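Q: Here's a chain of 217 amino acids. Please give me its 3D structure as tokens.
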Amino acid sequence: MINTEKLEIAALLEKRKPQLAAKRLMDIAISGCALLVIWPVLVLIAAAIVIDDPGPVFYRQVRVGRNGKTFRIFKFRTMIVDADKKGLAITVGRDSRITRVGAFLRRTKLDELAQLINVFCGEMSFVGPRPEVQKYVDLYTPYQRQVLLVRPGITDYASIAYRNENDLLAGTDDPEKMYIEEIMPAKIELNMKYLREISPLADIRLILSTIAVVVKD
């Protein structure tokens, strides 16, 4: 069953090569224009981060991308320096490692704007499965690894459905266990839904949905 499913998804993506090419062109055009237009905002965010907590502007964590190739994701730093060495790879509730400016950036999703660089460079797409760290990808089943057939994205169905993930994890005694056993599999199923309908039009719908959720929250 798993092998058949995998062949079907790979074949589906093969048939949609024109749509995937159009999706990539859209990514390049929008990310390039966005970087040219909003660079003053990016500079202001960078200044606020450094003033609030001296250190690097970006958090360059290694994530797993298309076909299992690793890359360094651009995110505006929202936590104290070396936060990954002082706790879990996931954030839980009101994590004490999150800075004051970082809390605002996370709430408004402005920390994700830096990933426009990854999109322009071809490491990511605007829409696609959120890239995981290697330790969690190593737990994927062959079926789940299908999410690595496409470029990871800034947003996806899972990002919308689990936008309050930190709060969910805060309500359990073992956040990482809950993430691995419950949240991660549910996210992957939502990613599989996206793989089956991947197209520029699907991307536009998801981008608009993400904007609506951020504004509403």
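Q: Can you summarize the key feature?
A: The chain has one domain: 2-216.
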